[in-house]
Amino acid sequence: MINVALLGFGVVGSGTAEVLDANRAQIEKYVGDAVAVKYILDLREFPNSPYASLIVHDYDIILNDPEVSIIAEMIGGAGVAYKFTKSALEAGKNVVTSNKELVARHGAELHSIAAAHGVRYLFEASVGGGIPIIRPMTNDLAANGIISVDGILNGTTNYILTRMTNEGAPLSDVLKDAQANGYAEADPTADIEGLDAARKIVILAALSFGKILDPDAISVEGITAVTSEDVKTAEALGYKIKLIAHTEQVGGKTLAMVSPRMVRSDNPLYSVEDVFNGILVEGNMLGKAMFYGRGAGKLPTASAVASDIIDIAANLGKASRPMKWEVATADDMADINDYSCVNVFIFEDVRCGVSKLEKVFGKIDRAVKSNGRVAFTAPTMTEREAAEKAANAGVPFVKKFRVI
Amino acid sequence: MINVALLGFGVVGSGTAEVLDANRAQIEKYVGDAVAVKYILDLREFPNSPYASLIVHDYDIILNDPEVSIIAEMIGGAGVAYKFTKSALEAGKNVVTSNKELVARHGAELHSIAAAHGVRYLFEASVGGGIPIIRPMTNDLAANGIISVDGILNGTTNYILTRMTNEGAPLSDVLKDAQANGYAEADPTADIEGLDAARKIVILAALSFGKILDPDAISVEGITAVTSEDVKTAEALGYKIKLIAHTEQVGGKTLAMVSPRMVRSDNPLYSVEDVFNGILVEGNMLGKAMFYGRGAGKLPTASAVASDIIDIAANLGKASRPMKWEVATADDMADINDYSCVNVFIFEDVRCGVSKLEKVFGKIDRAVKSNGRVAFTAPTMTEREAAEKAANAGVPFVKKFRVI
Questions:
Q1: Which residues in chain B have their CB less than 8 angstroms from residue A287's CB?
Q2: Considering A38, A100, A200, A242, which one is annotated as catalytic?
């Protein structure tokens, strides 16, 4: 019998108990031993839950029980979750987590504590909900050098942008509706401002390039400035607007960023709609592969937590490959001004505007004019060049979208 | 130093040597030891290859060299590849393969020989080329009961169907062109008759349900009967025709089949175009997840072979979880007549035909008439019911397509 303690009995915590129960026989067959939840730590009581008898309020009970070999942290945040995770690893217990904030902020330290104590710290559920992405990027793509990762990593914003696109509705209306039916939280800031996606791309960047960036220090733009007019412009150009988290190396340094982009119809992310997530990984041998599925939700996320529990349970007592992340210094971070991509530029549609713009951007094919704006796709250039051209065009600049 | 022998120096074999070389430093870091090719077995000489000095023609040299711990079999077929694989496993050497035919036909026996000798037999490259699918289904989805798998598993037929759809061209023209530019083989039988996809779905069915079916005994329909008219009908109904390999359990028995289907636009497989593969896995907790990428090609497939080599190299000397497949008996195989799904029925468009069809099928919404045919989508029914209704409608039946 392998004993597990769950920290937090919210949506993901209760889902994890459910997954371990529902697929008990299959899990026992895979692991070669039964996997059982021994404790559930929560501040609340759950008198009507079938798991009521497992609830404890004192973490020390778990920490001091030598029978508990795996702890699943689903508290969230970087406060008490950090403290609990650290003491669990130091006590020689394996930890799995769905907590992207904690992994993004303290992953390097926690991995190194785990390695020092011969235990594992796994985080499959921290990115992409139920989609297997962390383990495939760690193990399956080990024969590849990662060139870049582009992800639709936040279901709430993808749902909002999909509805804005399909209905032509403004963000505020769709957001209200999404809140009403549970697709967006009462305080949607972390989602719509891109902070959730930022934490996740920082994790994928660390998996790809070994350095973990500070999620507060990378360039993050949410979807609040995306208008119905922008959505229409994208459509006219044959694109769709999606919130894209991106990482690559620029000049040997790591770049990670989040911004709403226009996605071309031949990009597999174009078809990732509603609350779904898609993660497009480019390997130097593999080319592009996409991982697609439910990026959130009780059972999908819990199934990822359970997959980590099972991975540890099936390999208990075997030496494991330590994960080494280094905290990125200022010198490890690429300057976003050096990043280059194709952009859609949008200017005010003034008299003789296009001929002025052509002096700066070269021949403009297929410009889209509507509602006093002119939009066009410009060839690859750096952010620095793009900003210069936008400022010096002699036509009032509205905004630009990166294209993918 | 971990020594590898490559069997077969064709496209995938030479690609594997290239992948191991190109990402040497990264692989050594991951494995914790250098991974080097010591021998390459091929009947031919390759005097101009940088690997010329590694070529051997006598398999015993490899088999008798205790320094070789991993053998990558990329010969193909179930003849000499079977003999070599068996003797390698019996000699206590780990084997990885890209050979779907061998895994489909002898996987159960080879897994059991591997387990008996404490070595591993891995086959990531046998399905989906470079797309990580075998390891994620084995490890990452271990917390899920698999409900079904639907895959576009053959790049050649997907390329042909994509071009038929985009150009309205008949299969024969597109096939000739595909052969001319290397997207189809001179003898395209295994691809266009669905045999390649059949071997692959049999492997995914075994991973999902533990029983390996005989690929020659499952229902397999290729794309040769798909006409330009069918493609137009699909388009008029809002669908696309794709060659879909499917597995699920019906009445506790395992079903696997391959057939051209009409794919709905909200299915993620709808957007899998050209030579790309997509594998949609439904888990009982996860819901649906899709794995997408290049299903063939030198470096993508080689990167999957290399990922297996690296997996073994990184875990040499550790006990591994044996893979247990049972050879399916006739009683383990579901009867395809019990399988049920939505279908598009196509009948001849005769006078009063629709009212006759409505007597048998119920109200027919959105029938599409063209070129003397009437096509409509009917609700879920078993294959048995579908055949009965088609035969008894009193209107000449043309064909039907399963819908996904």
A1: 130, 293-294, 297, 299-300
A2: A200
Query: Where does B243-296 have alpha helices with state H?
Result: none
Give how far B139 is from chain A: nearest CA, Å. 7
CB nearest to A292's CB, from B292, B307, B318? B292
- What is the C-alpha separation between B384 and B375, in angstroms, rounded? 19
> What is d(CA A143, CA A100) in angstroms, rounded to the nearest whole number?
26
B135-166: per-residue pLDDT in tens?
Answer: 999 999 989 999 999 999 999 999 999 999 99
Query: 3.40.50.720, 3.60.10.10, 3.90.1150.10, 3.50.30.30: which CATH number matches A2-130+298-329?
Result: 3.40.50.720
**The domain A140-294: what is its CATH number?**
3.30.360.10
A200 is catalytic: yes
With beta carbons under 8 A apart, name residues in chain A contacting B143: 19-20, 23, 27, 303-304, 306-307, 309-310
Model confidence, pTM: 0.96
Regions of chain A short of the pLDDT cut 70: none
Which pLDDT score is estimated for B365? 83
Q: Give domain limits for chain B.
A: 2-130+298-329, 135-294, 339-403
Query: Is B289 close to A131, i.e. CB distance below 8 A?
Result: yes
Q: Which residues contact B44 (CB under 8 A, 6 or more apart)?
A: B9, B55
Are B19 and A291 a contacting pair at CB < 8 A? no
Identify the CATH number of the domain defined by range B339-403.
Answer: 3.30.70.980
Q: Which residues of B43-59 are buried (b: 16+ CB within 10 A; e: fewer)?
A: eeeeeeeebeebbeeeb
Yes or no: domain B135-294 corresponds to CATH 3.50.30.60: no
